[in-house]
């Protein structure tokens, strides 16, 4: 009797087998690097800022001369100059002196505080300060933001717009990033036909190639479709060999027949250096899932039914992508209250698709449909997990919804 792995065992197996997977890297311009993953630690070659900089419009002065200032007895200074943004002042601040300065301006030598305009009055070349200033107030010191020689972005960090701003601030024009994971997609089954063909008899259009391709596009992946392969062992083996030569991961979406499943398993096992890691998982949907390793590369045999196929991509293939890229779980989740009860009885961990309703509270409405129903996914916002030890979830229970 075949012993099915639990989903947790599959997660651990993926970590053990593929944590050492290495991707090549490439240099790209920082404007092309957004959402890419850094291939090495990035060290700043400069201080940011590289001079003491004012953070407000105001006046630069020596703060100790304002300590007794108040509304009735202001501190009085002689205005000796003006510092425009982008210019270096050609004067120093002496005792009893102040200089007008703008946001981002270079703080003159000897000045140790910037007083804000609203706490002052300028009149006839004199500055009247009505509030004590603190040392370093409204000054961003040299290197206070980023120190020269410090690591600003770590290896495996994803470059969001904020990180691109950091790279620009330290003068980087290019950055070394990992190349995207290459994923080959094969659709199998005698009943599957292309959208170029006219629908006839008991044939159905290929769905999985397109849902898998577009799902890959949301991830750190370069997908490539290899078309439809009929239920023929040699054809599938040849297509698999070609896809493995050109990709890091191959996804085989199977037809609904037992024969298709067997052909996928046989084709994988026939390859040199192949190792079948998973032959069935104790979950619903997605029980007939195959995961294998060929050399250093991964092969997934995915269920043929569109709902099951897409679920397994989101659940296992996405997990592998995160492992290869050293990312934490990137799934988006939200807590919601069950609108109605859900009963389960499969003896396996079940994943139930739900539709979220947003109002005074977030409600999760369970959706029901067979695994072949593509419209089920069209209506779903996400899915919830019902552990094998439970017989369901009651209305009103708080659940974690993984968004899709």
TrEMBL record:
Cross-referenced InterPro entries: MoaB/Mog-like_dom_sf (IPR036425), MoaB/Mog_dom (IPR001453), MoCF_biosynth_CS (IPR008284), MoeA-like (IPR038987), MoeA_C_domain_IV (IPR005111), MoeA_C_domain_IV_sf (IPR036688), MoeA_linker/N (IPR005110), MoeA_linker/N_sf (IPR036135)
UniProt domain MoaB/Mog: residue ranges: 184-323
Catalytic reaction list: adenylyl-molybdopterin + molybdate = Mo-molybdopterin + AMP + H(+)
Signal peptide segment: none
Keyword line: Magnesium, Metal-binding, Molybdenum, Molybdenum cofactor biosynthesis, Transferase
Entry keyword annotation includes Secreted: no
EC numbers for this chain: 2.10.1.1
NCBIfam families: Glp_gephyrin, molyb_syn
Stated role: Catalyzes the insertion of molybdate into adenylated molybdopterin with the concomitant release of AMP.
PANTHER family: GEPHYRIN (PTHR10192:SF5), MOLYBDOPTERIN BIOSYNTHESIS PROTEIN (PTHR10192)
Protein name: Molybdopterin molybdenumtransferase
Organism: Anaerocellum danielii
